[in-house]
Design goal:
eight-stranded parallel beta barrel, TIM Barrel, 37% helix, 18% strand, alpha/beta
Length: 299
């Protein structure tokens, strides 16, 4: 067992030889509704996920100023983009409710902070870990700020070169770091998921738990990532894939998430330890189907 890459998150560990840590990415699929957020937390608990993840932005920092006043149609009417970003962003009182609700439901929660002010905001709730989104991977100031929290850090590596991933690893604390293969397209084409990068990362960063953050439709690629050795899985969760929002189509609905968790647990059992052996359950078949049992047992 390679314990050198184990990272403790609350009462669980992420790393090789541990159960796959399964994250239901709520993100902004709540569309600014606390009631929807609670329903999505309930869905993640029902499915058996280990944690839920939100996204926190400071709109004036994250949205380029030249886009602030571009108008767009939304479910709440026509409004500027900066108004829309504020509309779907939870404030302190909403996160107080989320924090308490997750404690009651006994599920971990954390967030991807998209800017330095967002880190300061989320720190008020003392999260178990942080996520750096693919979009933020090259934001050195943000990486340094999250590193200062001394919490475990999970990074997604979509839209990033290997050199950019290496630089992020260099900046962050390797002993508290997790890396996810990801492709930043929503939903993502199967030919661009590149699940084999999970294996490549495991060879390149042997001391770091490697996982997969998927944006595909369907579940099969996520199963493949588990079979390739992903130690954690992140998939977006939604109440309805047809809902408003850029992430909804690449998300998994409630019963799909339930199936995903169940099947991952079955895959873990089926993978075994890699040591070839003859099981006691096979011996009845052996006695019926082989001529010389003693020779076949010890050959």
């Amino acid at each position: 067992m390679n314990r050198s890459n184990l990272i403790r998150v609350g009462n669980k560990f992420i790393g090789d030889d541990q159960p796959v840590y399964i994250i239901a990415e709520i993100g902004i699929n709540h569309n600014g509704s606390l009631e929807n957020a609670k329903k999505l937390i309930d869905a993640a608990v029902f499915a058996g996920c280990d944690s839920v993840k939100f996204q926190k932005r400071t709109p004036e920092i994250c949205v380029p100023e030249d886009q602030w006043y571009i108008e767009r149609d939304t479910p709440w009417g026509r409004m500027t983009y900066i108004e829309y970003r504020h509309k779907i962003e939870f404030g302190f009182s909403e996160y107080e409710v989320i924090d308490q609700y997750c404690k009651e439901k006994k599920i971990h929660w954390f967030a991807s902070a998209w800017d330095v002010e967002a880190v300061k905001f989320i720190e008020e709730f003392n999260p178990l870990m942080y996520k750096i989104s693919s979009a933020s991977l090259t934001d050195d100031e943000l990486l340094q700020k999250v590193k200062q929290t001394k919490k475990p850090i999970m990074i997604s590596t979509g839209m990033s070169s290997l050199q950019q991933v290496d630089k992020a690893v260099e900046i962050l604390n390797e002993t508290q770091l997790m890396i996810a293969q990801s492709t930043s397209n929503y939903p993502c084409n199967l030919y661009e998921l590149n699940i084999n990068v999970v294996e490549s990362y495991k060879k390149r960063y042997p001391q770091i738990p490697i996982g997969y953050s998927g944006h595909e439709t369907g579940l099969a690629p996520t199963y493949a990532a588990v079979a390739k050795g992903a130690t954690f899985i992140e998939r977006h969760i939604t109440l309805d894939r047809a809902s408003w929002g850029s992430d909804q189509a690449a998300s998994v609905e409630i019963m799909g998430m339930y199936r995903l968790v169940k099947d991952i647990r079955d895959i873990e059992k089926a993978l075994g330890d890699g040591i070839k052996k003859v099981y006691d359950s096979e011996k009845k078949s052996m006695s019926k189907l082989r001529k010389n049992i003693s020779e076949t047992l010890y050959a």
